[in-house]
Protein 1
Amino acid sequence: MAKNKNFKNFKKNNFKEKKFFHFVLPEEVKRSIWAVFFFLVAVIITLSFFDKAGAVGKFLMRILPFLIGKAIFALPLFFLLGGLSFFSAKYKGKWPMILAILFLILGLDGILTLNFSNNNLAQKPEGSGWLGYLMSKPLLSAFGFWVTEIVFIAFIIIGILIFWQLLKPLTSKKEIKFEKEEEIKEKKKSLISRIFKISKPEFKVREIPPLSSEKETTFERQPIDLKTKPITEVSKLMPALLPYQAPPLDLIEPDRQVPNSGDIRQNSAIIKKTLQNFGIEVEMAEINIGPTVTQYTLKPAEGIKLSKITTLSNDLALSLASHPIRIEAPIPGKSLVGIEVPNKVRAQIRMRELISNPNFQNSRSNLLFTLGRDVSGLPAYADLARMPHLLVAGSTGTGKTIFLNSFILSFLYRNSPEILRLILIDPKRVEFPVYNELPHLLCPVIFDSQKAVSALKWLTSEMERRFEVLAGAKARDISSFNETAAAREESILPYIILIIDELADLMAARGKEIEAGIVRLAQMARAVGIHLVVATQRPSVEVITGLIKANITSRVTFQVASQVDSRTVLDMAGAEKLLGQGDLLFISAEITKPRRMQGAYTSEKEVRKVVNWIKSKFKSQEPEEEILENHLSEDLEKTLETPESDSDYLYGGDDPLYEEAKKVVLFAKKASSSLLQRRLRLGYARAARLIDMLEERGVVGPGEGAKPREVYFNNEENSNGGADDKEGWKKV
């Protein structure tokens, strides 16, 4: 019985709708058909005036004057306006146009009837129609001539207002002045695409706003000038110290593509039907059309487990003929489930609209940067100061380096070199050389792993120095210190951002030192304005260790090869279902659930233009206009030149107890780890390291099993010359 029941349900679901001539037209095609129909009626009536419409025209010229009289001559104009209204973005169906035409005809026919009647409506006057006569006679007897006239004028005004409201989106664009020829062509293209675009469902749909909108067009013509826009509260206190003008927006390209999600009405019906086949009743909600994916939201019926829906991703992908499909259950802040389906045509997001957005321009944070656009097409930003460090992961070619370029450009459009400094580490040697000679850099781009270790060591010492400075000023963090320093007209502490493009290569070469430096900075450097951005194409536990993950909670992941890599970065699956080319998931301490976005694309040409513009502006400044000198870059360059400094033996330098260990060995005339442990009160590991250092410097001899090591002394330390000076060290 159960098999027969399942077979009947299968037949019912699959063969019920297989009828001949059964098809559904998209909504935009229906609009175009109705518009053509209205235009056709207008043409037929117009040709009927000249007896050029055949028998149908003659019939219309007999029946229409009988109904509306002389108002027939305005009828083609009314139908022409009705046809244009179908192309409006505020289209609500054909009935508003029909209602507007009816109001105009009744008002016009009523006025003509009153003017031809000479205040006598005992019989229908010549030139008027029966509709106007039947409307005018009761009104005239009830209100009189002038009130009836005003009523019919009100009918005409109502019809005009309806048409004006429907035609307003088509005419409002003509109010924009001083446009370039390219912008006018883009507007024509957007109008044509809006006329023939893919259909919309009856439920709520949110799309990316048109790129040629009035607000964005007028805003793009205004260059950003950070002299008049506050960077932070510090910039308000000392405007003379920040003569920095952000690069113009003309250096970067605007958005030019529009996403195509296919027939969203049909896809919504397929999703609902597929879930019903598995016994899951849902109610479809709004649809969000993003640049990369379209999110179909639905609300399951009461008693439905979300796990039943999340396990059907492959079945939905088969039904929609689209792969891969990601299910977000539930959507944060909503009692809905989101099904993200890849678009047929993806839109490429550029930096220009994101940077010109008021949310970016009016932000008080110096470290705000662009992430891209979310699944609803809305701009997304993040504040590095609140993260306070960032981990970027993803397979090769998924958009990590482009994301880092957009990341850097966001800072270049907001901060002068005196507010922000960068340290770029590029083991691949081909990604960051374009930024060389940028005034924001503390040192040239670092390619060598040893110099990278030295840079981390210098940042650690700089962090400790800054903590002492903040403690002396009794400031809690760098922002409060800079406000106080600016009020006193003293030099401020710039933010320092260390960006590593490929962590896997550094971990393979100097894993322990790199991990120790990153962990030390990630734990304490936030308060003093030092932030880390680490990127890797190999998200494995050997590269992204447990200590690094524990201290860097904000992460951006692009498409990865497997679910294991996704769990390594995000501690959950999902990154393996991304689409590549900038499609990313973002998670931070404030956002506990991954948020999907499409990252902004920045070409190498755009980066080169911005960097060259900033270099030219910086070099053209006169000495008296330059900001107070900061010697951070000089100190860092000295550290890079002498990477084996003895200031911190944890990074490969000398142990501070080396000289004391040397004296102990020479005085005792024997050397062993146990001797140093007893005399200097050390652990075995450090004592053995001191013995190895003494052996490398020639103070003690090599170990020979159970025999004691030989100890040597330097003649230069105990004599003023002689034959023994040629030999240097002598056996004790």
Note: The chain has a mean pLDDT of 77.
Protein 2
Amino acid sequence: MRGDFSRIRFNRRRNYTAVLEQQGRVALDADANEQCFIDACQTRTETIDAVGQYGGPVADAGFQITVSGNEIGIGPGRYYVNGLLCDNPTSLSYEEQPYLSLPGTAQDAAALLSGLNVAAGALVIQVWLQVWQRLQTALDDPCLLEPALGQADTTARVQTVWRAAASLVPAPQPPAEGTGPAPSCCQDMNAAAPPQPSTGTMTAGTSGPAADCGCGPVAAAGYQGIENQLYRVEIQAGGTDADATFKWSRENGSVVTAITAISGSTVTVSSLGPDANLGFQTGQWVESTDDTLQFALTPNSPGTLYQIQSIQQKELSVTLAGPAGQTISVDPSQNARMRRWDQSGPAATATGIPLSAGTWIQLENGIQVSFATGTYNSGDYWTIPARAATGQIEWPPCGSDGNLAQPPACVQVYNAPLACVHWVPPTSAAAAGVLVEDCRQTFSPLTAIAPPTTVEAIHVTGVSWVNDDITTLDQLLANGLVIDLDQTPSSPVTGANFIVTVETPAAPPNDDSLTLVPGTAAVARNAWVLDAPISVGAQAISWLLPREGVNLWQGIDIAVFQMFLNSLLSPGAPSQLFARVRVRLPGQMIFASGPIYLDGQTYGQAALRQDGVTPRIDLRLPSGNEAVSSDFDGWFYLAPTLAVTSLSFNFGPPPNQTVPGLTVVVDFLNRVTGVEATVNNEPQAVNPVVTIALSYPAVAPATVALALTGTTGVGTVATIPASVPIPVGQASVSFPITVLTNPGQGNTYTFNITATLSAVALLGSSQAASFTVAGVAPPVLGHGPGLTG
């Protein structure tokens, strides 16, 4: 903090809990400030222990993000981030925040929502609560001046700064097939790594006596100043040691004044300082800043360095010289400031002083610093107390690890996830919209925590399906349904208390030409209760349909039963209208010894399906709401097993033949240059392609295996790919036939194509089709069109 302090002293590793005054001693600012640091550290630690890294009280959790039209709203209430209290007293729009500067419109709410809509699901808006602390002096808050003492500037304040910062980022990608549900945007935000700290360090020391030949006495080695100072070395431009620059101040950067007006290169200020030591002089370097830099999307950005050309004391104005062609761009209406830095000489420039890693750099009065190889962030700083009484500097700092090379301090900016705003695609009933995924965490006050006499219960800790998402029948046959519990039930579990109901869309009555349309106002469904063998293991209940065998229900073959289930699911599949499977455990009928009954009540939370676009309701587990004997309910959508329904060729069959035919086209060297097919009784050049039709648009990536057979010529005359992938949402896929060689005049080879889509259990499918390749005689050289010989 750039305040007028004698030194800044606090070391958490010392485990100090109080600063005690002794009689007759001098009162120092460093002692009183250390007590403030001790108290703040203890308070923040206790808050983190009770709340976690971030969270809001359940009764008044603040900063709820909402979207209405082109506005992003921020709700009132409290939220804690790394132990710091953020209190928003009233509802705000995104642009109304007191600590967010948005010059122009590139990052305002309307622009963010417009970008989200244009990206159509490829991007999401992440909203973070950013929190840090800054020093406020009487220059920032005139109420800190004391009128009874002639407007004396006595103390400063530490202020907590908070703001909701939003940005467009790529949407979470759905996982590979079979690897689980799509990641949640909130989970991604919670798992995001914090900004990396600087890796560079700085060493401070004192140089030997000057080597001049003056007549005066030679100064001794060490600190040669005549006043106690707190030197501040601060990084101006960040980067590696080869790119970064720094600035320094003997007053901890505390000499600052307000800019009240700007005219060209001349600025009018509120004060030129109380005296020469704490004021401004010609030739000094100053930094101009305002709130657009402090509260930019990259907070606490550095200002621009200028050198004072002249000072007009009477007018309280200063003429500055800066980089060529650069005007003074700060805004006096945005709390513009001019801060003094004390570097001088040819090394001091408008961009700062180069670090020159490994080289001692002289500051003044015998103090020198050296930087190590590494990275440095703008705003990193070190403070060096220098004492005239001892002629020494305090380095390494008192209470540090004792190493000469010390890492920098910095203003810590903490980030807590607030929300993700997703694009929702349009439907037949509504235009495109947005879904706000709430990422906030809540906690109960200590007074609201239930007493330890809570009745013990069984809770659901996990389920094997993705709630409110889609799976296929063959996946259900392979995996069944598993519900994980925190205790093993002792009650019998059968189809009576593990209830699985399949709600299938009913076919339109009395008219086979009608089709089911997704998103219609009303859809009739038939409910089928589906029993299957159930087993109870260690803290889990498993439900699994049989996959092979007979004697199921009076001798019905398992394959017949599986095909019956598949037929129930098929009518709505082409329109993506799938059966809904509900899973229910009645709480009063699932129990363990004690007796201990199921507390199965679960709360829903916003999430997205595996396609990364469609909203769904996720289950917040483990279950439980102190409601013993409460039911557990979950559901998912069940699609039929994807099947290959037909193979078709894009070339017509010759007359009087049922098998499509190809005839090779060759050059003089008998090389195949193309193929022809008879289309509408005329030979035409074709690009032979086979199209596979599927039973409905795929809900997950799949692969069709291909096989080419024939009496002869497989792989030498004709070939096809070994497989073809099916993207999500596709109901057909095509692949080419490649003709490699000429079968020869008078030869016609027949080939068979088999397309197979494997599935778990007995529901795999395949289709076959045949085509022929006819050979020709190569043209005779010299007898072609236009040739003689």
Note: The first strand starts at residue 54 and ends at 57.
Protein 3
Amino acid sequence: MKPILILPILAVFMLPGCNRSTDGNGTGHPAAGVPANYGVQTGGTPVATALTYVGKNSCNDCHPKETELYKGSHHDLAMQEANSDTVLGNFNNVTFSYNNITSRFFQRDGRYFVHTDGSNGELADFEIKYTFGITPLQQYLIEFPGGRLQALSITWDSRSRAAGGQRWFHLYPDEKIDFTDELHWTGNNQNWNYMCAECHSTGLNKNYDPDSNSYHTEWIEIDVTCEACHGPGSRHVELAREQPPAGLATMAGAGLPVVFNPARQDQWIFKDNSAIANLDTVRTTDLQLDTCARCHSRRTTIDSKAVYGKPLHDTHSVSLLEPGLYHPDGQVDDEVYIYGSFVQSKMYAAGVNCSDCHDPHSARLRIDGNGLCGQCHRAELFDSAQHHFHAVGTDAAQCISCHMPAKNFMVIDNRHDHSFRIPRPDLSIKTGSPNPCNQCHQDESPQWAVAAIKQWYGKVTYDFHFAEALAAARANEPDAAVKLLRVVDDTGLPAIVRATAMTHLGAYLGPDNIQSALTGLNSTDALLRSASLSALAGLSYADRLPVMEELLADPVKSVRLNAARLLAPFYKNNLPQEQKLLLDAVLEEYIDAQLENSDRAYANVNLGNLYIDLQRYAMAESAFKRAVREESNFLPAYLNLAELHRLQGQEAQAESALRQGIDQNPRAALLYHALGLALVRQNKHAEALTHLKKATNLAPEDARFGLVYGIALNSLGNATEALSILTAVYQKHPSNRDLVLTLATIHRDIGNFEAAYDYARQLVQLSPANDPQAAELLKAIQNRLDME
């Protein structure tokens, strides 16, 4: 077993919107005047003078309109000190019960408290230090030793009573979260310092100390202010003070690290009676989108220093359209914070920016209702019953009902998908992706919705959609490679879609499609270059170096880091000096990126895996043990620690690491499976079978557990029970090639040639056309049948 590679693309969860998830004495605090290293002008040009933060009050006099819009916005109220002006929840000695625990909210000496279960499960009083967000819900932050702030999972519904609000509710109402669960409010997945702080405060420095496992988190301002987007403003303020009043209007953001489009100089215009407006200029930068996406995306921070004006992928690794985050057709499944869905859209491709729809200072929509879409889509054509076939003025007639379907996160926070897609109920039939027709008409089938659309619009032809490829890859279907290649090679598709397909293609890499992955290395899009690297990870080391080494000098950090990680096994080879120096430099960047997140287990596992490749085994062991300390439920920490011991011939220590993991995670099938394999290596076959069986029983949906258990039974001479297990798994996974091969082989070996022949025929159908193994097996079994 190879170490499980956890590249820095695991996403940050933020609150509000968290799905899972200070100083040494406990509280984060302002750090006014902290230098911001060196700012960058629009486009990333270094500024010669060190810049400092000046605070939002420095902006008020010259920017009164923007200041007024900003007041009371979600950004303005992103985080506040808890007091009578900011706390919205009912703390008048009220109670709330959840999972057999009754919590009480009360006040004492003008301060706010909750009496609830702590990290040990015992009830105690906890003071509310900060409020978090404002509507439709407000969370509360509680101070812990080691500089930690934790977000309470019992949350205040700040909507009106008429809307169902003015009540306490739990973020996980359908689960039973207690102090042992990873989602408990005292755990890492509800930790403000890592999960939330970067995007809810301005000029934040997390200041995590891995040695003491503590934080000294500081901020310039507690909420999201002007400098969160425009960067440190000291030079801008200096220039403004030097100007006579008449000259201020000509400054246009001079001295600011980031300047957007202050006068909205580009315009959307209808040309030649077109139905949809076009931009009168060509946008050549994603500066605004990248700035918003630093927080409004599912991503991991890889560089928190001097981020202003840099491309998003230079400071963050963004999640692709991964299972659990997105449906196969790219619709939002989990909370992904807008960016990943928006960059799939035709709007983005046409040049639409966030501020075309949202006022950047108030964060509100520029126009309510369909009028917002009517800025660019002629109302007489699109805001009509002839287009949407619903009663005008109803919710169903709103553009967003069909083109931006919504989903509740955090129980009551209704978020709209921003991919602006045309409803495709046919994809619900093919891939299981939802569609807005059936979200409203829940009593009807997708087939009914398809028929309704055909009735409205006449003959509708549904072309191949990338969802079919991603669904095939997720299900490991035989034709997945062909479909993925079709997506990868389609340059008209969004880059995030092609990049997602490219990462899947890595599992099917062969002579027929390797060129597509090699071509992707030269893409102008950073996501696609990085995904192409990942797709080529299966190349031998000798083949990997010549095609990847150039990307060690890629201008975008997330690409460089991926290249370095995949080339790290070369480090001990006799590389030319120039290559070794370059690899050295980027590996240092990679290490820094992991240290940026060393308060989480995945980053320490990444470090441990790197140190294994560099043959620094003591450092690898320390990293894996830090990962276990950080998150005792992070299974790769135990698995990779065990693998490290195995590599060093320390089978007893490997077994011990896995048993430690099972003690902490007694229902983790993967750990029982790994322990079973470790015992097999020690010739403890009877005990190994017990653990392999346990893994199969805990996760019957995972084909590999049943497959390995069946093979183990057969190897110990119990072919009958092995076939019983393998047949049951096959019924759930009939397209699993390894499973079909195993069934064919065992039936052949015990003389069941007819059954073996049936499975061998299926194997041929599941195998690539140029794979001789399946054809030879089928032919050999046919020969035996002919001899009968």
Note: Residues 266 and 717 are 75 Å apart (CA to CA).
